[in-house]
Amino acid sequence: MKRLWGLASLAAAGLAGFCALGTASASEGAASAFDLLFRSDLKLPARTVLLTAREEGWRSEYRFANDDSGGREIAICVESGPIILPVGKEVMLRVTSVDVIHTLSIPELGVTIDAIPGRLNEKTMKPAKVGRLVAQATIEKVGKTSRKTLDLTILEPAAYASWVEKASQTRSCTAE
């Protein structure tokens, strides 16, 4: 019984240390949600897109590792414009909000996901066709619902690799 109690207290101490660490990291301020995730032990897919919803529009952060970036980690921030995705490749879509609840729906890809302040929701998708898609973004406010559209562009592998290379030279999440 003593041994069991010792393990339980050790686990509690470890949990307390973990919680204290998490609080310190969150209070550091300027780190993006992605930076916090990348510092954790979580293994992210090679292609991850973080969409941050705001009433004014959506911000896209792209993180690439290995096959799309020649073996190096690349971070790209895009304040506006279409969401760029590769055809035939798995992409992890993560969404959050800074103000109110937003719902993003991409019917052609079978994706509906909520962007909630203080939460990070995720869906994995694999676009099957090249082309342009229109996503519906719904904003929920007290007693009022409004809708906006977001453009998605699905590119062939060569065009997507070219976009990654060009965008990684001009925009960086870490520079903000």
**Percent of residues in helical segments?**
25-40%
User: What's the arrangement of strands in the largest beta sheet?
Assistant: 3-2-1-5-8
- CATH superfamily of the largest domain, please? Cupredoxins -  blue copper proteins
Strand segment tally: 10
Report the portion of residues in β strands.
Answer: 35-45%
CATH architecture of the largest domain: Sandwich
Distance between the termini: 53 Å
What is the assembly state of the chains in this entry?
single chain
Which features characterize this protein?
about 180 residues; 2 domains; 3 helices; about 25% helix; globular; disordered N terminus
Overall description:
- The protein folds into two domains: 1-30; 32-170, Cupredoxins -  blue copper proteins (Immunoglobulin-like), CATH 2.60.40.
- It is globular, with a radius of gyration of 19 Å.
- The longest helix has 26 residues, at 2-27.
- A hairpin with a 4-residue loop joins strand 6 and strand 7.
- The termini are far apart.
- Helix content is 27%, strand content 40%.
- It is of the alpha+beta class and 176 residues long.
- The strands form two sheets. The protein has a five-stranded mixed β-sheet with strand order 3-2-1-5-8. Strands 4-10-9-6-7 form a five-stranded mixed β-sheet.
- The model is unreliable at 1-30 (pLDDT under 50).
